[in-house]
Amino acid sequence: MNFRTIIEPFRIKSVEAVKFTRREEREARLREAGYNVFRLHAEDVLIDLLTDSGTGAMSAAQWGALMQGDESYAGSRSFYRFQDVVRDLTGFRHIIPTHQGRAAERILFHTILHAGQVVPNNNHFDTTRANIEVEDAEALDLVIPEGRVPSAIHPFKGNVDLEALERLLAERGDRVPLVMVTVTNNSGGGQPVSLENVRGVRALCDRFRKPLFLDACRFAENAYFVKVREPGQGHRAPKAIAQEMFGLADGCTMSAKKDGLANIGGFLAMNDDTWAEACRNLLILTEGFPTYGGLAGYDLEAIARGLEEVVEEPYLRYRIRSTAYLGEKLLAAGVPIIQPPGGHAIYLDARALLPHVPPLQYPGIALANALYVEAGVRGVEIGTVMFGLQPDGTEVPGAMDLVRLAIPRRVYTQSHVDYVAEAVIAVAGMREQLRGYRIVQAPRVLRHFTAHFEPLP
Ligand code: F0G
Question: Which atom of ligand 1 is closest in space to residue 103's alpha carbon?
C-alpha cells in the first residue's frame, strides 16, 4: 500500500475518560498548587504532557504478559526472560534490574564515583546530574555548539563535542571515571546522537582507557533517527542500529518507563565484573535481590515485551512522525521551538517567546502555567528552575528556558494533538500579558519538583 498518511499502528480496546474543567477552576487549582504544575492533581489536567515517562499505554500483549509474571523472590522465570531480551538487545554481560532509571544511576555513581571526579555527557538529565553532584562530583555537559541554540538545524543535535571531550580527557582525564552519552539527548531537546559520533566517543575512550556508558532511555527513538538521517543507515532495522550502538559502549543505565514501553522499571547493565559485583551488593541493600531489583515479576514481563515492541518500525515511524506533526503545526504559526522536533517531545522556547520575562523570573514557568490555565494542558519547565541553582547555592540562568511538551507513547490521538497545537498558538498570541514568577520556597536539590512560586505583579 502506497498511501502517504502515517497512521497509529494500533487500534484502541480500552479507554480512559479525561475530565474537562473551567478556566476559573484551573486558576484555583494552580494557585493551590503553589503555581507549580508538578503539584496539581493529574485529574485536573485535560491533556498531560508533563512527561513521557511511565505514562505510555501498554499493549494487549504486555497486559497478557503480566499474568505470566513469576513472583519468586530469587531466580524468577520472569527475570530470565527479561535478561534474555535485554542481553539480546545490548550484548552486556551483567543485567541488573532496578525500579527505574535513577535507581540505576544512583547505584552506578555511588559505587564508582569519588568526590572531585568529573562525568562528561552530551547533556546530563536532571536526575543524572543530581546523582553525580550528590557524590560531590561534577556533571559536565559537552553537547556540540548547535545543541545549545534552539533554532539551529542539525540532524544530530545531541552529538557530543568530540574536541571538547578530547580536551577534557587530555587535561583532566585522571579525574574522569567514565564517559556518558544520552540517547536521545533529553535535556537538549530529545535530539538524536549519530552512530558516527558514538564511534568517535568510543575511539577517545579507547585512547584514554575510559569506559563508555549510554543513558539509553530513548535508544529506539535514537535508532530510528539514525536510520532516516544518517547516510548509509536507511536499509537497516532499528534494532540492528540499536544493537550496534550498545555494542560501542561498556554499559548503560536505562529507564524502562520510556523505550521499555512500561509503566515502571529500569536497569543497569555492564561488562565489567568488578563494578557489577559492587553494584549488585548495593542493589540488594536498597532495591532488592538481583533477580527482581525492586520490581514485581510481572513488571519484568511487561518490560521484556515492551523492549521487543519498541523497535518495530511501524511503531517508530508513527512515534517520530506524530511528534514532528505537532512541531510543524507550531512552526507554521511562528511559535519558537527547538528545531528540528525531537523524538519524544516538542520543546517551546519560552525565552524567545517571552523576551520581556528575564530568565531569573522563569519564563518557562510563566508559559507552562498559562498553558494549563488557558487549556488544561500540562507541560514542564526545562530551564532556569530545573538547572539554574548551582551546588554553591547561587542562581544563574539555565542554558535555555524551555517548556517541554512530552508525548506519552500510544496514548493521545491526532485530534488531541490538534487541540494542543491550537492551545499553544492561542497562548503564544497573548504572550505580552504573561508575567514572571518568583520562588517562595524550594529545596536545595531537584527544586523544580516541589518549589512554590508566586506571580510577579
Ligand atoms: N535519563 C534520562 C535521559 C531521562 O529522561 C530520565 C527520566 C532518567 C534518566 C531517569 O529515569 O525517571 O526512570 O528514574 N526522565 C523523565 C522525563 C522523568 O520526564 O524526562 P527515571
Answer: 14
18: three-class secondary structure by DSSP? coil
**Cβ proximity of 156 and 342 under 8 Å:** no
Residue nearest to ligand 1 atom 15, measured at CA: 53
Q: Which of 52, 111, 50 is nearest to 322 (CA)?
A: 52
Q: pLDDT (tens digit, 0 to 9) for every residue of the chain, 457 residues total?
A: 778 888 999 999 999 999 999 999 999 999 999 999 999 999 999 999 999 999 999 999 999 999 999 999 999 999 999 999 999 999 999 999 999 999 999 999 999 999 999 999 999 998 999 999 999 999 999 999 999 988 899 999 999 999 999 999 999 999 999 999 999 999 888 999 999 999 999 999 999 999 999 999 999 999 999 999 999 999 999 999 999 999 999 999 999 999 999 999 999 999 999 999 999 999 999 999 999 999 999 999 999 999 999 999 999 999 999 999 999 999 999 999 999 999 999 999 999 999 999 999 999 999 999 999 999 999 999 999 998 998 888 999 998 999 999 999 999 999 999 999 999 999 999 999 999 999 999 988 889 999 999 999 9
Is residue 99 within 6 Å of ligand 1 at its C-beta? Answer: no
Distance, CA of 189 to CA of 187 (rounded, Å): 6
Three-state SS for 378?
A: strand
Q: Does any ligand 1 atom lie closer than 6 A to the CB of residue 215?
A: yes
Beta-ladder partners of 48: 378
Q: Is the peptide bond before 184 cis (omega within 30 degrees of 0)?
A: yes
Measured on CA atoms in the order 217, 420, 324, 379, is the torsion positive or negative?
A: negative
Phi/psi at 436 (5° precision): -80, 180
**Starting from the edge strand earliest in sequence, which strands make up the sheet with 212-215, in order?**
94-98, 266-270, 251-255, 212-215, 179-182
Judge if the beta carbon of residue 225 lies within 6 A of ligand 1: no
Integer angstrom CA distances of residue 77 from 80, 301, 379: 5, 9, 39
Helix, coil or strand: residue 349:
strand
What is the full DSSP assignment across 48-61? Answer: E-S-SSS-SPPPHH
E strands of 344-430, at which residues?
345-349, 377-378, 380-382, 402-406
Tallying the residues shown for the chain, one arrives at 457
Which strands form 345-349's sheet, in the order they lie side by side?
345-349, 402-406, 380-382
Q: What's the pTM value of the predicted model, to 2 decimals?
A: 0.95
Concatenated DSSP letters of 56-116 = SPPPHHHHHHHTT----SSS-HHHHHHHHHHHHHH--SEEEEESSHHHHHHHHHHHH--TT
Is there an atom of ligand 1 within 6 Å of 280 CB?
Answer: no
The residues facing 139 across adjacent strands are: 119
